Amino acid sequence: MIHNLVEEHVVAAYDAMRPHFPDFCGCAVCREDALVYTLNRLPARYVASTTGSVVTEVNLEKEQSRAAIEVAMMDSLRKISMAPRCGRRSTAAQQP
Ligand SMILES: [Zn+2]
Fold first, then answer.
1. Which of 22, 39, 69, 76 is the most exposed place for a label (fewest CB within 10 A)?
2. Taking the model in full, what pTM does it have?
3. Tally of domains within the chain
């Protein structure tokens, strides 16, 4: 089973930061867009779990990686808030 460690961090970052972006829609479409957009901007860190056990111990090399993930997620939430693919109009986008 091949697993991308960054994915877990991106999902965690989404859960932590989502409440701070009230303009972000948060539906299933927008959530996946935010995760995909963020993941595509970050280098993947793959591990193989040969034992079949779920990798819960996630270690990124540096604190810098965590910061990079948070910055990328912030950009994603802002960008998708402005033009959500699900069609919901954000309050920010309606302003002149
Ligand atoms: Zn949405």
1. 22
2. 0.78
3. 1
